[in-house]
Automatic annotation (TrEMBL), chain A:
Keyword tRNA processing part of the UniProt annotation: yes
Organism: Rehmannia glutinosa
Family label: Belongs to the SEN54 family.
Name the record gives this protein: tRNA-splicing endonuclease subunit Sen54 N-terminal domain-containing protein
Domain of life: Eukaryota
From TrEMBL, chain B:
Biased composition (Basic and acidic residues): 239-250
SUPFAM superfamilies linked to this entry: tRNA-intron endonuclease catalytic domain-like
Start and end residues of each stretch annotated as Disordered: 221-250
Name of the protein: tRNA-intron lyase
Gene source species: Rehmannia glutinosa
InterPro entries linked: tRNA_endonuc-like_dom_sf, tRNA_intron_Endo_cat-like_sf, tRNA_intron_Endonuc_cat-like, tRNA_intron_Endonuc_N, tRNA_splic
Domain tRNA intron endonuclease catalytic: 103-187
This enzyme's EC code(s): 4.6.1.16
Group of enzyme by EC: lyase
Reactions this protein catalyses: pretRNA = a 3'-half-tRNA molecule with a 5'-OH end + a 5'-half-tRNA molecule with a 2',3'-cyclic phosphate end + an intron with a 2',3'-cyclic phosphate and a 5'-hydroxyl terminus
Domain tRNA intron endonuclease N-terminal: 18-90
Gene3D superfamilies: 3.40.1350.10, tRNA intron endonuclease, N-terminal domain
Membership in a protein family: Belongs to the tRNA-intron endonuclease family.
Amino acid sequence: MEAKTMDSDAFERLSLCEGTYGCDSDSEGSVDDSVDDELCYASGDIPKLQFRLMVKLMFTVRKEASKARWIEELRMAEVLEKKGKMWTTTGIVRNGKTYCSIEESLYLAEIGALDIFNGDDTTLPLSDMYGKLAEDKNRHGCSWESFEVYRHLKFLGYIVGRHNVSWSIKNANIKTDAQEGMAELDNIRDRGSVDNSFITEMFGNLYIGETRPIFDVYPPNSKFRKSSPGNPSFVLCLTSGYPPSKQEIEDLETRCNGSPLKFCIVEHGRVSFLSFSKVELPVLP
Amino acid sequence: MSTIVSRLQSSLIESNSQGLLSGCSVLLAAHPEQTELFNHACFGHPIISAEKDKQWFQLSLEEALYLCSVMKCIKVVGENKCEKNDEELWRYMTSKKVGFPFLFKAYSHLRMKNWVVRAGTQYGVDFVAYRHHPALVHSEYAVLVLSDEDDNKNARLKAWSDFHCTLRLCGSVAKTLLILHISKNGDGAIFPSSLENYCVEERIVTSCMWRIPSMASVSNPPLEGLPVTSDPNLSQTMSEKEKKDTVRKK
């Protein structure tokens, strides 16, 4: 299979290109039979443009890639050299340094936008990155399925971060914790961020095997600032084998502070996104 | 719709209309004016017969109970021509149809908001709900009634395949899936005041699905995914809220 790489700048231009997306959110749900008879839409007409453009870009020549070092104790990569504008929407900032989660690192490595190194400066190949993901997901907080969803959301241009992990903190204490799914990077209460004990709870054993929130998803935004990202468009929950009960949905809604929830099911190479939106049907005349 | 329903109500009261309980239906004879009102208000289905001066209608249990006990415009008699009171009707219907209390609560919840509610069997759901007469609009919602009393036997949407199936079906018929969660708080009251013990929560289930592209499948362009500009659920929830804030009653 010939290598396919991505021009990272071109890719970001695509990501930040808000005008491409036209969605008539007022239109009635209807099925576009011409696309695929296995597809089911809930609302709106979705342009094919963005994805075809994406596919084209995958064949362009790679420019210089950014560089990062994988830090096993943190289960994150510390970014050493940044190339391109994608860093405004990728990675978390602690004490002025940028760190990428495993899904961010793997995604960028896959498209050839990031070269990852080990502690001893040897190259960390893609196969090893896949290997790390395949290890017990609780070590890295991300499973293969979560990664597939992450990657596809990125293709669509969304800005995606781990749920309840601050994008940027100054004066942070970087701490490692082998018990949790992800290193606890914040020991100090940041103004506006989530309470520390809550983070511990989130990444503890509470959610293993059940439906849990994994990503905060923001719409494409060229003015996105990690220092003030605003509220996510929706919080994505990865589901367990069974649909969430009404109680589970309500509990998750409470925990996510009113952000809309979407539930994703990854099965047989297909991702479905479900929303269970509370409504109140109007009284008609 | 509420005007039409009121007119139907007045007309039925005036003619002392009586329905005959038969199995899981109630049969009722209507004169021409009432026939038109039944059709416009979407209650019952006409029965084709040779009878010229009246039109027989077949009402579902929910429709009959609603007309009888909530709108109080018809009486219902059993096979011995004895009029059944509210409680007798309730007991009868509950014994005839699994989950009847919750189905009826859902039905009356929507009807009281002046939505048109019809059986949803042909769409694999409990009801379909329209804003106006079906001839004027496509159905808005395919309604499934879920209750916290569902045991494993009757539980709906147990597995993800149930969701895919129902959503797929709803999508092909241009309907949005509306789930009515009905919970019962408290006992002791008898029908119809017991209806007030039930709470209804409305949720819309929307979905979209795509195949995850892999490098190998690049030659077959993958399918579209989520709309990116705005969350349709957000704007939908917002507009519902706005409508709620500016409720207009005729």
